[in-house]
Design goal:
Chain lengths: 308, 250, 278
């Protein structure tokens, strides 16, 4: 934009370099992380075209040998080899984590928009929407998963057509749980954004002959959904993290697999630190992605004014 | 013009309540096709409400509003149809914040009139040219000055090819130096023969273009008449006092 | 021990002296039902459940009651711990600079980017928290790990609340404070902080209910709070699964609802008078 012509001071240039070095590191780590995940997944789907299914992409022995030859890193060599040994398992778990989060988020979104609109513009439906969001936001997610899995035993009802898609039918129960729960939180964020759209916008829509529903659809929602992006990103991040609770209804996602290996090998520290880092990587990816989306859809002239 | 009363818009004994508060008391006036009528009156006197009753953004409880022979207040009337034919310009512009100037103007033709994407855009471009914004087609509201925004607002209303235009204090939210460009556009519309019902405090503009001035106070029509008469020889004392107050502000 | 598998029985006595609720009372005839796995009650209308199962829930109300107390205690302790760390952290992010600010920021990103269940497990297994004795009561390792985990994570979120509200106080306030002779620290302490704290109430409210709900996740380290006790109960009597979970969900709802209303009240009570906006 304008105003970028002022000569930078040395200090600024140094800190710029600092920032871009950090950025570069982050991007490199991201590429490595996602590259590893994608190659692992594709390898599994294609029945082991790169390495045999279940084997790490790089032989643990190789990593151990390489590190052992470096004096500074030699002490970590066996730990590193252990982690490499785990990678196929972790990649497989991460796949479910990503699927559960993604599907729940998207389906939840399509429930959340009508919930939010009903809450703002409805009468009777506003009460229904309020009751739904308050109930789901007022009780623990884990309790909700228990209701679906243990209480209603929904795992039994997964249709045959779906049950083959994932290793366990119960994944569908988890997706249902996160969808219903996430819809409530998303609705709350979207409602806030809908309310922040000036009332004159609907009036103007009505004045050119749009019906109320059309005004909401063409005028209010396009603005509200943009405004909702920052808080909606929070919900995205929350879902990634809370998808780990699916482990407690036996869904073999990332946390579940980590826990399994940990209880077999007793290497809790290493395994959970690595697992934590993987969730962190997913979370950072999500928020960077949404930052991009936010920039992309920013309304010219308004984007800069909005603090974030 | 006004001497050949064709009853294009006939407002008779319109009353309106918000809750228990009556904000319009038996308001009556009429306009012919091509007329410009200016509503004046102190703040809170019901000018905006009267205007909004004409396109049913507000619902009058009593009286009758005939537009081109049709009863506006009839419960059977399709309000969306009505609003298609009556354009409105707001004090606060109310431009759609997420759409460019062209997008703002094209939305109605596209979604309400059902024009194709291209036709709607062409029509929008033509209207923006008409208000002198041919060079700002793709600017967004937040990138435009107040005067430019209001001109987009006018173009947006014009794009529906309305037979009546309502203006609710179109220049009140503008910095003084931006008022002129908007009034100029409105002048142009007058010259083209547009029928306009205008709420404004710009007395010299009113004087120049109005066929009739209606002075509202406390929801009642205190006095109405051609500008010369109303401004020079007001019959009611209240009218004179109001005009003095306004003049002393200029 | 696998956190996901065999947690229920070990969980019961985790708060030592405080948690004296004992094991759930189960009739001998119900034990057979345990073996048959988890099945839904066979009532005419599933939502109502079996009256007998509801009686079972009520019979064990005191057992769940102790769980409620633990849940509340855990929430309050975690929030306070989170405040004690989170407020200074927020201040550092606004007023600090250099290494300290960076360190605080990074720790915050990590804590906010990691699932709470992972944080809890790390606290429990990795940090290897000790039993803490206060003479009258003792805190078992799961309790200490729970407070540490929930508290640290809450600190990371609370720091963001305070960072935002501290930054939202107009710079002119600080200058005005300095202009009457307060030091920078005093101006922050006596002028900015009181305003920021009041503005923090809505965010704090949100955080409070999040912590309250997330206490249920200490299930993972076998701490016998409300949800874990519910799990124990329905593991003992598998026809009452839905009844038990709905009952404890209702308790959670009442807890979050009353907390929210109480904090609403606090919010209006301590709001800075603003007069009619024109
Ligand atoms: N939506 C509304 N609800 C209740 N009262 C209203 C509403 N809109 C306007 N009023 C009241 O109606 C009266 C006339 O308002 P308005 O038509 O806006 O006056 P003017 O445009 O002449 O300033 C005022 O007393 C105002 O307070
Ligand atoms: Mg008005």
């Amino acid at each position: 934009m304008a105003g970028a012509t002022r000569p930078t001071t040395v200090r600024e240039r140094v800190s710029d370099a600092d920032v871009s070095a950090g950025r570069l590191l982050l991007v490199a780590a991201g590429v490595l992380f996602w590259g590893w995940l994608l190659v692992s997944w594709v390898n599994r789907w294609l029945g082991g075209v790169v390495v045999p299914v279940g084997d790490p992409l790089v032989a643990p022995g190789l990593v151990e040998g390489a590190l052992a030859s470096l004096p500074a890193l030699a002490t970590y060599a066996s730990d590193a080899a252990f982690v490499v040994q785990l990678t196929p398992n972790l990649a497989q778990g991460t796949w479910l984590t990503v699927v559960i989060t993604g599907v729940s988020l998207v389906v939840g979104f399509f429930l959340a928009v009508p919930l939010a609109v009903a809450r703002v513009y409805g009468r009777f439906s506003a009460w229904l929407s309020l009751a739904y969001t308050e109930l789901l936001r007022g009780t623990p997610l884990l309790a909700q998963l228990f209701v679906l899995y243990y209480g209603l035993n929904l795992g039994r009802y997964v249709p045959g057509a779906l049950s083959g898609v994932f290793p366990r039918d119960v994944v569908w129960v988890a997706i249902l749980g996160f969808t219903l729960n996430g819809a409530a939180y998303q609705a709350e964020y979207i409602r806030g954004a809908v309310e922040s759209v000036d009332e004159g916008q609907i009036t103007a829509g009505r004045a050119i002959g749009l019906s109320k529903v059309e005004s909401i659809y063409h005028v209010v929602l396009p603005q509200a959904l943009r405004y909702a992006i920052p808080s909606w990103t929070n919900e995205f991040v929350y879902l990634i993290k809370y998808s780990s609770l699916a482990a407690f209804i036996t869904v073999p996602e990332l946390y579940y697999r980590a826990d399994q290996v940990a209880s077999e090998t007793f290497r809790y520290t290493l395994i959970f630190v690595v697992t934590g880092a993987m969730y962190l990587a997913l979370v950072i990816t999500a928020s960077k992605l949404m930052e991009r989306v936010d920039d992309r859809v920013a309304i010219p002239g308004l984007g800069a004014a909005r603090e974030r | 013009m006004s001497d050949s009363d064709d009853g294009f818009l006939r407002v008779s004994d319109v009353s309106k309540w918000y809750g228990d508060e009556q904000v319009l008391h038996d308001v009556s006036f009429e306009m012919s096709r091509g007329d410009v009528t200016v509503l004046i009156g102190p703040s809170g006197s019901g000018k905006s409400t009267m205007l909004r009753c004409v396109n049913r953004l507000a619902e009058a409880q009593e009286g009758s509003i005939l537009l081109d022979g049709e009863e506006v207040l009839s419960p059977d009337l399709d309000v969306d149809d009505l609003r298609r034919e009556v354009g409105m310009v707001f004090q606060g512009f109310n431009l759609f914040a997420h759409l460019s100037a062209v997008g703002n103007v094209a939305l109605g033709p596209r979604r309400v009139l059902g024009l194709s994407e291209r036709e709607a855009r062409e029509r929008a471009e033509a209207q923006l040219e008409r208000v002198g914004l041919g060079d700002q087609l793709d600017s967004y509201p937040a990138e435009l000055s107040g005067g430019q925004q209001q001109r987009v607002g006018i173009a947006r209303a014009l794009a529906m090819e309305p037979k009546l235009m309502l203006f609710d204090e179109p220049t009140s939210a503008l910095d003084p130096e931006l008022i002129g460009e908007v009034l100029e556009v409105m002048h142009g519309l007058v010259d083209e023969g547009m029928t306009m019902l205008v709420v404004t405090h710009e007395m010299s503009f009113a004087r120049e273009v109005a066929d009739e001035i209606v002075f509202l106070d406390d929801g009642r029509v205190v006095e109405r008449g051609p500008p010369d008469q109303l401004f020079e020889r007001p019959e009611k004392e209240r009218t004179g006092r109001f005009l003095e107050r306004i003049a002393s502000h200029d | 021990m696998s956190a996901l598998g065999t947690l229920a029985p070990a969980a019961v006595d985790s708060l030592g002296a405080l948690a004296s609720g004992g094991a759930p009372s189960v009739a001998a005839s119900d034990v057979a039902a345990v073996a048959s796995g988890l099945v839904v009650g066979t009532a005419d209308w599933w939502f109502i459940g079996e009256p007998a199962d509801w009686w079972f829930v009520l019979d064990n109300a005191d057992y769940l009651g102790v769980g409620v107390l633990l849940t509340i205690g855990l929430t309050v302790a975690s929030i306070l711990f989170g405040f004690a760390l989170g407020f200074p952290a927020g201040a550092v992010e606004v007023y600090g600079d250099g290494l300290l600010k960076r360190a605080v920021g990074t720790v915050g990103v990590v804590l906010r980017g990691t699932p709470i269940v992972v944080i809890l497990i790390v606290m429990y297994f990795v940090v290897g928290v000790p039993q803490i004795n206060f003479g009258v009561a003792s805190l078992s390792p799961p309790v200490v790990a729970g407070i540490l985990g929930l508290g640290l994570r809450s600190a990371a979120y609370q720091s963001q609340i305070f960072r935002a509200t501290l930054a939202s106080v107009d710079d002119g306030q600080l200058e005005a404070g300095r202009s009457v002779g307060l030091s920078r620290f005093e101006a922050i302490r006596y002028v900015v902080v009181p305003q920021a704290l009041r503005r923090s109430i809505p965010g704090f409210q949100n955080e409070f209910t999040i912590v309250l709900k997330d206490t249920s996740i200490v299930f993972a380290i076998g701490l016998a709070e409300l949800l874990t006790r519910g799990y124990d109960l329905f593991s003992e009597r598998t026809t009452a699964v839905l009844e038990v979970i709905l009952f404890i969900s209702a308790i959670y709802f009442v807890l979050t609802f009353t907390t929210n209303r109480a904090l609403d009240y606090l919010g209006t009570r301590y709001a800075i008078p603003e007069g009619e906006s024109t």
